[in-house]
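Lab meeting, item 3. Inverse folding demo.
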């Protein structure tokens, strides 16, 4: 009888001990979850800005926001010489293909991704041209900046911008331009440097330069009648 009681007590103690271990494990498991959860909550707090600013498609590159020198992007080939961000190339190619399907035959990609060092070469070349014309370095750089972005501050360095056709103002009068104005947003592209937004973008109007931002963003930007700078501010 006494032996039985001792066994019952020992078994009970063991059961309680094991039960405690299980509960503890479960608690630490729950605790971990809580950490993750609150972490998610912190992220969720500024939900809109965070999600959107984390959106690679609307990375802002302009006179105030340069890419780091070590910026890397995975590229895919448009053709043998031109490249674009791998994540968006299908939309670019489909857009051009669909334009052609709609009878817009005069559309082609003139320039897309440029490495920062290539951009530097373009910049220096233009500065030197102005220097040769007798401008001071300061004047030459200022003049160059009207048409060429500082290396690292061009959207072409990002791999999400594309220049069409001859990169001149005649593009505005083409069927291609008209088609892009009506359809580009469906493929995630916006006219990046609008005439009426020059004071914000600090870049002269460029009908040939289109920027990939993803179709939801593109539609929203057009609907709000904003440029990318305004849109980012708006959603932040
Ligand atoms: Zn461009």
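The presenter then showed the designed sequence:
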């Amino acid at each position: 009888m006494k032996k039985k009681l001792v066994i019952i007590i020992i078994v009970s103690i063991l059961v309680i001990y094991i039960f405690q271990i299980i509960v503890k494990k479960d608690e630490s498991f729950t605790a971990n979850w809580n950490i993750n959860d609150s972490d998610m909550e912190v992220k969720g707090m500024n939900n809109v800005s965070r999600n959107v600013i984390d959106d690679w498609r609307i990375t802002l590159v302009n006179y105030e926001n340069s890419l780091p020198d070590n910026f890397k992007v995975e590229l895919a080939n448009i053709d043998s010489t031109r490249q674009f961000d791998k994540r968006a190339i299908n939309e670019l190619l489909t857009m051009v293909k669909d334009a052609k399907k709609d009878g817009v035959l005069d559309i082609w990609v003139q320039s897309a991704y440029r490495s920062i060092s290539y951009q530097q070469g373009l910049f220096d070349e233009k500065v030197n041209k102005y220097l040769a014309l007798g401008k001071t370095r300061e004047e030459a750089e200022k003049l160059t900046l009207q048409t060429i972005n500082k290396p690292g501050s061009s959207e072409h360095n990002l791999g999400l911008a594309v220049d069409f056709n001859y990169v001149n103002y005649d593009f505005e009068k083409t069927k291609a331009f008209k088609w892009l104005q009506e359809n580009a947003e469906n493929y995630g592209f916006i006219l990046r440097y609008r005439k009426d937004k020059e004071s914000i973008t600090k870049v002269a109007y460029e009908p040939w330069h289109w920027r990939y931002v993803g179709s939801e963003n593109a539609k929203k930007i057009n609907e709000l009648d904003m440029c990318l700078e305004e849109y980012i501010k708006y959603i932040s």
